[in-house]
Write a structure and sequence with these properties.
Layout (H helix, E strand, L loop, with lengths): L16 E3 L2 E3 L4 E5 L6 H13 L4 E3 L17 H14 L3 E4 L6 H4 L5 E4 L7 H9 L4 E4 L6 H13 L5 E5 L17 H8 L4 E3 L1 H5 L5 H10 L4 E5 L17 H21 L1
Parallel strand pairs: 3-4, 3-10, 4-5, 5-6, 6-7, 7-8, 8-9
Antiparallel strand pairs: 1-2
Helix pairs in contact: 1-2, 4-5, 8-9
Bound molecules: phosphoenolpyruvate and manganese (II) ion.
C-alpha cells in the first residue's frame, strides 16, 4: 500500500500495545465509559460499573470535538482530574481524547492512552505531537477516510518514534441515514492484511443506535478485532453528549456476558 513503511505488515509480526497490564493485540480488549466526563459522581459510578462488568480500560472525554460550538465542550483539566480519580479507584487505565497539539504533553500526565478522534485523523500537527509522546495512541478512522489514508496517518505517529498505535474503526459516512455511520467491519480483516498494528472497533459511534450495539460488538469479536470501545452512561437520557448511543450499565453487563462467551468460543477454535 502506498506510503506504508513502518506500519506495513512484515513477516506476520504483530504489535501488541501494552497499557499497564492490558495487552491490546492479545485477546479482546474492552474499553468502556461515558462519551463525556460530566461530573465526578457520574464518572466514578460508571467506571465502577464497567469494571464490575469486565471492562479492561475506562474511556471518557474531557475535551469534546463537537459538531456545534454550542454543544457541551467538555470539562478540560477538571475532567482529566476526575478520570485520574477513577483510575485510582478502579485500577482501569484511562483512554481520553486530545484535540489540540498544544495540550498533548500535559494531557499525558493524566491519560494512559491518547485518543485521536475521527475529525482529527488528518490533523498532521497533532499526529506528529502524539508521535513524540510516551503514551499509546488510539487512532480513530476519519469518517471520510480510506484505509490507505488512515494507515498513512498511523505512519505519521510511528515516524515520530511512538510505536504504540491502536487503530479504531468507528464508522464512515455513506449514503445511509438510518444509522449515524456505517461500521465498516470489513476494514478489520483488511487492515490486518496490511499492517501489524492492532485494531479495535467502536460499535457506539459506528451505529449511533442502541439496539445495534450488542450485535455489532458480537460481530467485532467474530471478525477478530482486537477489542472495542463502547459508550456507557449511568442515566443515558441525561447524558450531555451521545445519549442515544449510550448503554446503561445493565445493558453493558448483559452484552459483556455474550461478548466474553463468544470470545471464549473463538479462542477454542484456534
Ligand atoms: C468519542 O469517542 O466520543 C468521539 C468523539 O469519537 P469520534 O471521534 O469517533 O466521533
Ligand atoms: Mn461520543
Amino acid at each position: 500500500m502506498k506510503g506504508l513503511k513502518l506500519a506495513a505488515l512484515d513477516d506476520n509480526k504483530r504489535t501488541v500495545v501494552r497499557v499497564g497490564d492490558v495487552k491490546v493485540g492479545e485477546g479482546f480488549v474492552v474499553i468502556a465509559g461515558p462519551c463525556s466526563v460530566e461530573s465526578e459522581e457520574q464518572t466514578l459510578e460508571t467506571a465502577h460499573a464497567v469494571k464490575e462488568a469486565g471492562a479492561d480500560m475506562l474511556r471518557g472525554g474531557a475535551f469534546k470535538p463537537r459538531s456545534s460550538p454550542y454543544s457541551f465542550q467538555g470539562l478540560g483539566l477538571k475532567g482529566l482530574k476526575i478520570l485520574e480519580k477513577a483510575r485510582e479507584e478502579t485500577g482501569l487505565p484511562v483512554v481520553t481524547e486530545v484535540v489540540d497539539s498544544k495540550d498533548v504533553q500535559w494531557v499525558c500526565e493524566y491519560a494512559d492512552v491518547l485518543q485521536i478522534g475521527t475529525r482529527n485523523m488528518q490533523n498532521f500537527a497533532l499526529l506528529k505531537e502524539v508521535g513524540k509522546a510516551n503514551r499509546p495512541v488510539l487512532l480513530k478512522r476519519g469518517m471520510y477516510s480510506t484505509i490507505e489514508e488512515w494507515l498513512n496517518s498511523a505512519e505519521y505517529i510511528l515516524n515520530e518514534g511512538n510505536p504504540d498505535v491502536i487503530l479504531c474503526e468507528r464508522g464512515i459516512r455513506t449514503h445511509e441515514t438510518y444509522t449515524r455511520n456505517t461500521l465498516d467491519l470489513s476494514a478489520v480483516p483488511a487492515v490486518k492484511e496490511l499492517t501489524h498494528l492492532p485494531i479495535i472497533t467502536d460499535p457506539s459511534h459506528g451505529t449511533g443506535r442502541l439496539s445495534l450495539i450488542p450485535p455489532m460488538s458480537m460481530a467485532s469479536v467474530a471478525c477478530e478485532a482486537d477489542g472495542m470501545i463502547v459508550e456507557v452512561h449511568r442515566n443515558p437520557p441525561e447524558a450531555l453528549s451521545d445519549k442515544d448511543q449510550s448503554l446503561t450499565p445493565k445493558q453493558f453487563a448483559d452484552m459483556m456476558e455474550k461478548v466474553r462467551a463468544l470470545q471464549k468460543f473463538m479462542e477454542a477454535q484456534k
